User: What shape does this take?
Amino acid sequence: MECGKFITPAHYSDVVDERSIIKLCGYPLCQKKLGIVPKQKYKISTKTNKVYDITERKSFCSDFCYKASKFFEAQIPKTPVWVREE
Assistant: This one.
């Protein structure tokens, strides 16, 4: 949480991308390797009859890590680092 004060959402997104490139889960606190990454861009759910874009989800090892990462990203201030008070 402390590091969130010194980065922007774009920096965090870059971290997630870089981790997924080296086949690690995109969530920085998780050290698991990514399994087989699907090549498809969409997932069709027959339960809900909806089409889901899974491009972003492919960078994470589990739904928990994806949700935790999105939760942390939402808490990072969008203002530039040099404008912040702390």
